[in-house]
From TrEMBL, chain A:
Organism of this sequence: Geomonas oryzisoli
Segments forming domain DUF362: 64-259
UniProt name for this protein: DUF362 domain-containing protein
TrEMBL record, chain B:
Transmembrane segments: 59-92, 112-132, 190-207
InterPro entries in alphabetical order: 4Fe4S_Fe-S-bd, 4Fe4S_Fe_S_CS, Electron_Trans/Redox
4Fe-4S ferredoxin-type domain residues: 258-287, 329-363, 371-404, 462-491
Ranges for region Disordered: 498-522
Name by which UniProt lists this protein: 4Fe-4S binding protein
PANTHER family: FERREDOXIN-TYPE PROTEIN NAPH
Biased composition, class Low complexity, residue ranges: 513-522
């Protein structure tokens, strides 16, 4: 609740503070910024700027959690984990905006030490001041009442819950069950317990969690995407280089746009459809403002 | 503690080295692990001789052990007095244990009754020496019991601290990280046989009640082997007997002067006698072949020992057929027989396994397989890109393979149990196993099936199947299956463990176009 209000207030204040932003928000529907180019750090920065810059989300002295996908023991070129250059650019922007501390973590599927090392994220952020690349600690999970359709409660990661700003940083890729893994599925990285058990009803379950836990910003890494044998791939033939990043405060809109990169329609993805039907965000492309940079 | 002698310094250095190597037997961000971590085993003459006897071939990995054996010929049991970490631990604690006098049962030829059957069994292809090898005993006690216990305690404390002060604990985080990264086991694993391993170690300490270094003198098969060899060597202490006018050696010597004559095969070369001799008479020097110093062993013991070996080798062969189905060996092990000959039960692979896939066998592999490593997928799985167990195995029982080769090694094959598997048994979606299967082309795939659910509603469900030609039995599917208790997919042992074909997935079955929007245009 607090988080949502916080964003609203921020959005409102920027309306008045920056005249040029008014135009941006004047149009109906969420803004989706899409950056394209081979300089992955550069396009990440430009895309963030198109959304109003990181200072729109991060205020000096705040604690930020950046949650990339570090789930698998794969090197960056396999597109199973978030591009370390993108992660680094986002973290740097957070620091520039005055963040007191940036925490980066994920609940991995393979051995966490291997995932952190292979993904290149650990080494990319190594030595940065006030940045912590952390392994999860069991005791920090807290039961959260979700009162959702299928999930009444679930254990979520304390450091994600207590962060002032939460930035969702998934990579866009194929998934055998939900067809695609995008922003909304990335929330699984802060879920405790037996995550696999939500697969039997994955679209409703993800909507339940995303309804109560809302990232301030979702930035989808589509610099290269995994088109088959997801979510961990392992075959370069399945990887397509797109050199794009997509950012929005509307997680559903970001997901919906990213879906098109796979040649699919947003409504093809049950997770997106369900979230849209439950009012978590916009999935109709013509109702979004798509800003290309 | 005694005064500082060269032997003592050497002992402490080697003990420290042993502990450091123990802690280094852990994944720390690099795919290769320092080769030296198994150094103590590779330089262990008992490991070397029993393993080479068993496989009847020369194993280059164990050359240091052979060199040690030759060194013992010239220098006696210096290993026991200067290097052996278990001996050092005994020396460190023995001072605090009050002695009640030697145990008669152990005084005689008991040690030969241990060593000979072990070596004879090796000759017959059953390598059991590791069960009683001092280095292995110590490493297993540390790996299975003390280190996990230590980890548990520290982590438990750290956790409860969180309960007390919550996020404020973060202030101490840097300090804790150091401890966590260098001293604690990364994962919290409970091992079967932990208790037995600790018990054996405690028993060895307990024997110190009877006399100093009781285990070393009376039982240790490694020490006995070294003692036997040293009898033949040229190194001699003079005088060989207690001097009539002094007899102080009896007080100073920790091992070999409970009789008037020096017991060569029990002398650990600690040099205490030479250092403390009031009249500086004691010398250790090389001379011609040794004068006769009492009988080595009677023929009775020798023949009995051989016979014991036959009994061990043949009598321990029984295996429970049902337990065989899940008898999964570490990656790269293709022939069970050969594996049993080479595995010295040192525990290194179980210590290093980063996903807790490996556990010591109880009786799954028969009595002869006690303490050999097994993959238990429901507890941990073999990490696709990891090759650590092969790297630390001192005898090559688990081969050290390049990552890509290791990935193709077959541990077993996964099999679905449709009575449990959710898409079949309950007609609802799941495929967590497919998601986790690390094989690039996926050894688990699924087909979309139109079904009427048990609630009467029509729906599409994804039903999984295994592609045998791709499955390497890594076990992650069984590990992550979200069902409680028994998994709906299990890895079973297969006889034919021919490695998978390199890459290019063997004739992929028709792709579901629904799941692969780019099929055909790459
Ligand atoms: S069993 Fe697998 S995961 Fe464990 S050490 Fe061996 S290779 Fe690594
Ligand atoms: S054991 Fe399971 S996860 Fe491992 S390769 Fe076989 S099917 Fe895939």
């Amino acid at each position: 609740m607090e988080r949502r209000q916080f964003i609203k207030i921020l959005g409102m204040s920027s309306l008045f503070l920056h005249g040029w932003l008014r135009n941006l928000f004047a149009a109906q529907g969420p803004v989706v910024a899409v950056g394209q180019g081979t300089d992955h750090a550069g396009i990440t920065r430009k895309t963030l700027a198109a959304l109003g810059g990181m200072q729109r989300f991060v205020k000096p002295g705040q604690t930020v959690v950046v949650k990339p996908n570090i789930g698998w023991d794969r090197t960056p070129e396999y597109a199973a984990t978030t591009n370390p250059l993108v992660v680094k650019a986002v973290v740097e922007e957070c620091l520039k905006a005055g963040a007191k501390r940036v925490k980066v973590f994920d609940r991995t599927c393979n051995d966490p030490r291997r995932c952190y090392a292979s993904s290149g994220i650990e080494s990319a952020l190594k030595g940065m001041k006030n940045v912590e690349v952390k392994h999860l600690e069991e005791e920090r999970f807290q039961k959260v009442a979700l009162n959702g359709k299928v999930l009444k409660e679930w254990e979520l990661y304390g450091e994600a819950l207590s962060a002032d700003v939460y930035i969702n940083l998934p990579v866009a890729k194929h998934h055998g069950l939900s067809r695609l893994t995008l922003g909304m599925k990335n929330v699984m990285g802060i879920m405790g317990g037996n995550r696999g058990s939500i697969h039997k009803n994955i679209d409703q379950a993800l909507a339940d969690i995303n309804a109560s836990f809302r990232p301030h910003l979702t930035l989808i890494d589509a610099t290269r995407i995994l088109t088959a044998h997801g979510p961990q791939g392992g075959n370069l033939a399945d990887v397509k280089v797109l050199n794009q990043v997509i950012a929005s405060t509307d997680i559903v809109a970001a997901d919906a746009y990213a879906t098109t990169l796979f040649g699919l329609k947003p409504a093809d993805i049950a997770v997106t459809r369900t979230a849209y039907q439950r009012g978590l965000g916009e999935m109709n492309l013509d109702k979004m403002r798509i800003v290309r940079v | 503690m005694k005064k500082v002698t060269s032997a003592r310094i050497s002992q402490l250095l080697f003990l420290a080295l042993f502990l450091v190597l123990f802690l280094m037997t852990e994944y720390r961000g690099s795919d290769r692990i320092v080769a030296a971590v198994n150094g103590f085993f590779r330089a262990d003459p008992l490991t070397a001789s029993s393993t080479m006897l068993a496989v009847k071939a020369y194993l280059p990995l164990l050359l240091p052990g052979l060199i040690m054996l030759v060194a013992a010929l010239f220098l006696g049991r210096f290993f026991c007095g200067w290097i052996c970490p278990l001996g050092t631990i005994l020396d460190l604690v023995t001072g605090r244990i009050r002695k009640v006098g030697a145990l008669r049962a152990l005084a005689g030829r008991a040690k030969y009754w241990l060593l000979l059957p072990l070596l004879a069994a090796s000759l017959l292809g059953v390598n059991l020496a590791g069960l009683l090898d001092p280095i292995a005993l110590l490493l297993r006690a540390l790996t299975f019991f003390f280190h996990p216990l230590f980890g548990d305690t520290v982590r438990g404390g750290w956790r409860s601290l969180y309960g007390l002060v919550w996020e404020r604990r973060d202030l101490l985080d840097p300090g804790y990280r150091l401890i966590r990264d260098y001293l604690l086991p990364f994962r919290e694993t409970l091992y079967p046989l932990a208790f037995l391993s600790a018990l054996l170690f405690m028993l060895i300490l307990f024997l110190e009640r009877y006399e100093t270094r009781a285990w070393c003198r009376r039982l240790c098969p490694l020490g006995t082997l070294l003692g036997l060899v040293s009898r033949l060597g040229p190194l001699r202490r003079t005088p060989a007997k207690l001097c009539a006018d002094c007899r102080a050696c009896r007080e100073h010597c920790p091992t070999s002067f409970d009789q008037d004559l020096l017991q060569t095969e029990e002398c650990i070369l600690c040099m205490e006698c030479a250092l403390h001799c009031p009249s500086r008479r004691v010398r250790f020097r090389f001379a011609g072949p040794r004068a006769q110093a009492g009988p080595v062993m009677e023929r009775r013991v020798f023949l009995g020992g051989l016979l014991g070996g036959v009994v061990l080798a043949r009598g321990f062969r029984f295996r429970e057929p049902a337990a065989q189905a899940k008898l999964l060996r570490p990656p790269g092990v293709r022939d069970e027989e050969e594996f049993l000959k080479k595995c010295v039960r040192c525990g290194e692979c179980m210590k290093v396994c980063l996903r807790s896939a490996l556990y010591p066998a109880l009786f799954q592999a028969g009595a002869e397989g006690l303490y050999t490593p097994l993959v238990v997928p429901r507890l941990g799985y073999c990490e696709y890109n990891c090759t650590l167990c092969g790297q630390v195995c001192p005898t090559g029982a688990i081969p050290d393979l390049a990552t890509q080769e290791k990935q193709r090694q077959v541990i077993g094959k996964a099999v679905f149990d449709k009575n449990h598997c959710l898409p079949f048994a309950k007609r609802i979606d799941c495929i967590v196993c497919e998601e986790h299967c690390p094989i690039p082309g996926k050894a688990i795939r699924s087909e979309r099936v139109e079904l009427t659910g048990f609630d009467g509603a029509k729906r599409t469900v994804q039903q999984p199947y295994v592609v045998d030609e791709l499955c390497n039995g890594c076990g992650i599917c069984e590990n992550v299956c979200p069902l409680e208790g028994k998994a709906a997919i299990e890895v079973f042992r297969v006889k034919d463990r021919t490695p998978l074909k390199p890459s290019s997935p063997a004739a992929p079955p028709p792709q579901d176009p629904y799941t692969d929007p780019y099929a055909g245009n790459s």
